[in-house]
Amino acid sequence: MFSSYLWASALTPHQLNGDECTASAAGEGTRLTANQFLSALIRAIHGKNFFVSAWSTATFPPVSPSIVIAIESIEILSEAKWRASQRAHELRVRTWTDPHQARAARGEKHPVHDFLFDYYSFRPAWLRRWHPGPDVVLAGGGAHEFLRWSEYRETSDGVTIDPATLPPKRREFAAWLRDLLVATQARPVFFGCHGLHEWAMVYRLPPGEIRHGAWPLRFPPGELARIVESLPVCCTHFDAFRFFTPAARPLNRTQPSRATVPEHEQRGCLHANMDLYKWAFKLAPFAPSELIADCFALARDIREVDMRASPYDFSALGFAPVKIETPGGRDEYEQHQRMFSARADPLRARLLALCRRLLAG
């Protein structure tokens, strides 16, 4: 569990020579000399149950360049405390999973919310399952139930997940994800796509091939095509671009591919921020379940705006359109982008910290 951070803004190791620098512990910003900064780090290293888990250039908090030292502590949870967290997580998540499973039992489809379970292949039962994440020890006899997962081990204080059990293939993924998150953090944010990706997915497509064919479009095909052609199409997210119609792909300013994802992903993109949920659950059971649920909550809110800004008419489901075909609608969409980007930044930082912790072993 990452309990505190120390960071020095605009410094390199060679510049830690007594000059004043900005440092922070547990989120409280203070002014320290470099010597004070290093002294605090040494105390943390030698303190009981503390060790340095990462020292690298990064943007947490969002300043660049910076040196970040993540100080990690071991937390021991009593059975009463971790059981309460387990129950709270399940209650929270069931507000999302229960309606989905009830619809599935009735054979009903929801064009907005089902996406989070169909496209993102993480089962509702897995989403409900609680894991504490690294450096948390679960005390009490009930903790032995976690030993059914090979990633857990027993210690003198209780049961904990062991990052050293991360298989080589998953370590490769964690390293790739770390690099993607760092690149995404560093890239200038872009809010000018206007949400045209959903429009490009139906551009000049025969009616029988439209993905949500059971729902009406807000415009006839000719008018929809005119709107797409009148606006700049500049999607940076490959997993949206790959669903563009053949006619729409040449209209996009960039031609992203799977291999170039780290070169294009940026924090203003709704789908890049929605994908934080995917990256979090791909690290399960090492990812704390609260982090996975926080990413799901963000993805769910983004999905609703994504579909409201689409050419489909989902007003019968209570989703008023964001009319990106108008200047006012594009402004409204950008405001949503900015809000989601601000919500995603701390989640991305938590994911990055988790990747570094797992790679530290």
Would you mind describing this structure in some detail?
This protein is an alpha+beta fold and 361 residues long. It has 2 domains: 2-73, no CATH class; 76-133 and 164-361, no CATH class. It is built from 13 helices and 9 strands. The protein has helices at 34-46, 79-106, 115-118, 124-128, 168-186, 197-200, 221-230, 238-241, 261-264, 270-274, 276-281, 289-308, 327-360; strands at residues 2-9, 20-25, 28-33, 50-57, 66-73, 75-77, 136-138, 152-154, 159-161. The strands form 4 sheets. A 3-stranded antiparallel β-sheet has the order 1-5-4, sandwiched between helices. A two-stranded antiparallel sheet has the order 2-3. Helix 5 crosses helix 13 (327-360) and helix 12 packs antiparallel against helix 13 (327-360). It is globular. The model is unreliable at 1-32 and 43-71 (pLDDT under 50).
